[in-house]
Amino acid sequence: MQIITADDTLVEYQKKMSHNRKVRAQAKAVLQRAKEAGIPEKYMRINKESFIPLVDNYYHNDVNKLVNSIYDDPLKLLKKEFIVIDGGDVQQRKSAGFAVLFRLIACDQRGMHWENSKLAHQLQSLKVFGTGEASGRNDITEICRNVGILFISECSQGDFRPNFETGRFYDEILSYRDDYRKPTIISFTNPLPSGDVALNSENAMIDLERFGQYIGIISKSHKKTDDERFFTIRVKENGRK
Known about the structure:
The protein is an alpha/beta fold. It has a single domain, classed as P-loop containing nucleotide triphosphate hydrolases (Rossmann fold). The chain is built from ten helices and five strands; from the N terminus they run H-H-H-H-E-H-E-H-H-E-H-E-H-H-E. It has helices spanning 6-37, 48-51, 63-72, 74-77, 90-105, 116-124, 137-146, 166-179, 208-211, 213-218; strands at 82-87, 111-115, 149-155, 184-188, 230-235. It has a five-stranded parallel beta sheet with strand order 2-3-4-1-5, sandwiched between helices. Helix 6 (116-124) crosses helix 7.
């Protein structure tokens, strides 16, 4: 018969307190990385129960399986080169994108968010913006290439101006990230073409000179069901059950 002494109780208490301190420190570090990545505070605590209603259950056969894979198996998600989000409205897409970004940041990763209109504007400008870390489009390209997790939100055709080599810069960023298996989350303002939607085929960005090869490939990702690089999430229209 084992006798539990006061010393044993003290040791267990000290272990518990040490564990709790470690958990608090880890949580604080994740929140700090989320803040540095540009995740607004309102999107930092989207749990499974909040994520499930975002997903289009008409498009995805098993919503629970999809959401569980994000929250319970993020290391597998980290092996996906492109996490593509479309459908719904801007609020649903931002909620889904930031939730995925936060979940991946929690895996000891650094992240960054760019609204596509701002990123495209910077990459299309011949001017140097300020004197800080991202002082020109070459610097911005370098930063976007190397960050652990990159989230480009609200990508639309109107963001890309012809004859500004924008597609070349996007290809430089996305090709490098693809080669080195750095996950890129990208959301599109319009539903992308897929097997069940024939009317939106014009939303695929197939002008490679304007959008670049990678944006063209990614905008057709819903048709590439056998391509292991892609993880697609279609969110549903606001208010639809």
